[in-house]
């Protein structure tokens, strides 16, 4: 799977010069992040970390990942409408995981009142690694699907131009011309536009629900600008603003600062730290409203690790997607082994297996955002401690994916330039819009390649571990 520039990587002077140029190109192209020191100011910004060179991605697996994206859109949407499945699947989890339980309470509360929302917008990102089998053949294996606040679609839209230029500078112009076009920020925006149109109020705005700390604002601005360019007004608000100034009218239309909100695009609200009691109240208000939530709370629950694990049980996909055998087959082909740790005989066996061979598995809690999973000795230690307690149920177990590493330079502000052994994770963005029972849009919207040094087991770009990359198809 080596890219055709292993030779270039060893030419130190050329690499150094290319790295300087790459950083300037990234700044010019808008591959930007606010700094750790001043996460809420744009006076001083820096480039978002990225690889010096594109990483090799097997073209068959890249195509497979694109080909299954519309199936995953259908699946997530089907789960979000299946109360019985969500109740049954999350029953054990919500007994021990307070965060999932709170989301679930809002979910049932909103259903009991009756949904005011009739247009649904899903923006997700399905992430994969290339598992290297015993014979060395790589296979596409899903790591997870993110159904809320899937990020870096904006910045990755701008990374391509940087890599194109770096390749040209290093004498690889022909290869540069073969990099695949990619513009998720536009694709995501078109989904938001469709939802906004179907909501049907010319004067209503799109509200980005954003965090208190907004280091990754430029990624969001890329999507925001696409909307402004189409004459749709965008406002940025926090849960706190919604709590203080949000209200519903008799038809449960959502208003804030006197403006009607057509679409709420969450870039926040996926981890417990995002919520205090007032923020939970704000979340409930949003969910009760008629506004199109991206995602609604049911779709957020469809993205939990517990749901992912239950999907691998024989017969589950068939039940969720009746009459869609081809979709089911495409989806199932991307599944790695996933195992329930619910209390009982099945879970006992799984726990014992993981304790005996901790390097073959990943232990995952119901959390998002990177840095929460457990590996190796730590996995063994934690599982031994909780193996007979209900706490075990708050985790799932997954086969560890083992990709073939390759060499690259990871460019990060204030870090020395050094070569690293790296592995990559490919994400495909999916967008869909449903009105009532009718699918109005179902698309893939571009890709994201993130690469990290092999010494890091976990963590994404925002967590400071992975960096932005561009696939070079081989
Ligand atoms: P999160 O919701 O925190 O992003 P993920 O399931 O995506 O959780 O895991 C975070 C990171 O951990 C991934 O980006 C990947 O690098 C690593 N990881 C997760 N699952 C596996 C696995 N089965 N095998 C190898 N690495 C994994
Ligand atoms: Mg992830």
Automatic annotation (TrEMBL):
Binding site for substrate: 125, 148-151, 214-216, 220, 267-270, 450, 461-462
Pathway: Sulfur metabolism; glutathione biosynthesis; glutathione from L-cysteine and L-glutamate: step 2/2
UniProt-listed Pfam families: GSH_synth_ATP, GSH_synthase
Protein name, UniProt field: Glutathione synthetase
Role: Catalyzes the production of glutathione from gamma-glutamylcysteine and glycine in an ATP-dependent manner. Glutathione (gamma-glutamylcysteinylglycine, GSH) is the most abundant intracellular thiol in living aerobic cells and is required for numerous processes including the protection of cells against oxidative damage, amino acid transport, the detoxification of foreign compounds, the maintenance of protein sulfhydryl groups in a reduced state and acts as a cofactor for a number of enzymes. Participates in ophthalmate biosynthesis in hepatocytes.
One example GO MF annotation: metal ion binding
Binding residues annotated for Mg(2+), in chain numbering: 144, 146, 368
UniProt binding sites for ATP: 144, 305, 364-373, 375, 398-401, 425, 452, 458
SUPFAM superfamilies named among the record's database cross-references: Glutathione synthetase ATP-binding domain-like, PreATP-grasp domain
Entry's cofactor comment: Binds 1 Mg(2+) ion per subunit.
EC number: 6.3.2.3
Domain Glutathione synthase substrate-binding: 204-302
Subunit details: Homodimer.
Domain of life: Eukaryota
InterPro entries in UniProt: Glutathione_synthase, Glutathione_synthase_a-hlx, Glutathione_synthase_C_euk, Glutathione_synthase_N_euk, GSH-S_sub-bd_sf, GSH_synth_subst-bd, PreATP-grasp_dom_sf
Reaction catalyzed: gamma-L-glutamyl-(2S)-2-aminobutanoate + glycine + ATP = ophthalmate + ADP + phosphate + H(+); gamma-L-glutamyl-L-cysteine + glycine + ATP = glutathione + ADP + phosphate + H(+)
Keyword terms: ATP-binding, Glutathione biosynthesis, Ligase, Magnesium, Metal-binding, Nucleotide-binding
Organism of this sequence: Crypturellus undulatus
Encoding gene, per UniProt annotation: Gss
NCBIfam families according to UniProt: glut_syn_euk (TIGR01986)
